[in-house]
Specification:
single chain, alpha/beta, Rossmann fold, five-stranded parallel β-sheet, two-stranded antiparallel ribbon, 13 helices
């Protein structure tokens, strides 16, 4: 027994020394700043964080992409809009988060710009206005962006709101806007205040896992089986086949802001359309996220039912993006950043254009 205890103690000591050496190595030689969510700057806080500083520009560079961001007089990542454009009811307001803004691509590759170019080629010279606001996104902010546009005199009668499954349903989106970080996406981490979360080697491991759709699927399944947050539990509840009443209520409460947008559109003679944007893992490894516990399509089904309830046309991009990925075998998302790349934005814009034409939005 004494020998067994000694061996156990030696094994535990060896494990601790190994973990300690790994922690030291990560702190010395790994740049964890590169693992953090992509941050945007030049937020106009005088406008409640709903726009960027008018006229500002900035170049963003990461190991994966490089792009320039320029903001017009309204603090939007778009060309200048003269008074006659603002007053034109035939135009489209495209509201959303960093996926509408176009993280990772140049201006002409963003979804609003690509839609505008497509419609022009088809004989519809309309402006598709980019109201994408990274970081402070999610339905509560989308409703505020619509109110802000109406207050500023934008007469567009067609409103498109993009709902992102990746982070639009975190509990934190219900916090006051000025308390949210100016990031394009929340960090993929849970239990930030725990001792484990402060280990740099643990942060690196989570970052590496997040780059693999299959490993994320395994981690989510293990989290549910063990009842602990192995990966990220703040937003993954949307995929659970069996949600708690509290989780269902949270989801509906956040979606309720889309209902507020519909009511505002009805009051002002506008028409609202919704587009559901899937997360990377849903597209690249749906099977790993679907089983007895999780269902990759669950939140999409819930949103589509809600859109039917409030009477708006809704497009689910998961089928078309999944098909494009299976067909071509080319990634539609950046591996580290996890926003769509130019191929993903192009595929999404093609499907959205068909949807809007079919629904008579033009």
């Amino acid at each position: 027994m004494r020998g067994w205890i000694a061996n156990l103690g030696l094994g535990a000591l060896s494990l601790l020394l190994t973990l300690g050496a790994l922690e030291v190595g990560v702190r010395l030689w790994v740049d964890l700043e590169e693992q953090k969510p992509f941050a945007v700057y030049d937020i106009d806080h005088s406008n409640g964080g709903l726009s960027f500083e008018p006229g500002h520009s900035r170049r963003y560079e990461t190991p994966e992409f490089r792009f320039d961001a320029r903001y017009n007089g309204f603090g939007r990542r778009d060309v200048e809009w003269p008074p006659d454009v603002v007053a034109n009811p035939a135009n489209i307001l495209f509201i959303g988060d960093s996926n509408v803004y176009g993280i990772g691509v140049d201006h002409d590759e963003t979804i609003p710009s690509q839609l505008e170019a497509r419609f022009l080629r088809e004989g519809h010279p309309i402006e598709v206005m980019n109201f994408g606001m990274p970081g402070s996104g999610a339905p509560p902010t989308y409703a505020l962006l619509l109110d802000d546009a109406i207050a500023r005199g934008f007469a567009a009668r067609t409103i498109v709101v993009a709902i992102f499954i990746g982070n639009d349903f975190y509990p934190s989106v219900l916090a006051p806007l000025d308390l949210r970080p100016a990031l394009s996406a929340p960090a993929a981490a849970g239990g930030g205040g725990s001792l484990l979360a402060r280990w740099k080697s643990y942060q690196l491991l989570r970052s590496r896992v997040s780059r693999s759709a299959r490993m994320v699927g395994w981690a989510l399944t293990l989290s549910r089986m063990l009842g602990v947050s192995v990966y990220d539990s703040a937003g993954t509840y949307v995929f659970l086949r069996e949600q708690t009443p509290e989780q269902e209520a949270l989801f509906r409460r956040i979606l309720g802001h889309i209902g507020q947008m519909k009511q505002r559109c009805d009051e002002t003679g506008r028409r609202l359309f919704a587009v559901i944007l899937p997360n990377r893992i849903q597209v690249e490894n749906r099977d790993a996220l679907t089983g007895d516990i999780y269902d990759a399509t669950r939140p999409h089904q819930d949103i589509l039912r809600y859109c039917d309830e409030i009477g708006i046309a809704c497009l689910d991009l998961l089928p078309s993006l999944s098909e494009a990925y299976r067909r071509d075998g080319e990634p539609l998302f950046y591996a580290v950043d996890r926003h769509m790349n130019s191929r993903g934005y192009r595929s999404a814009s093609e499907t959205i254009a068909r949807f809007l034409r079919t629904e008579g939005a033009l």
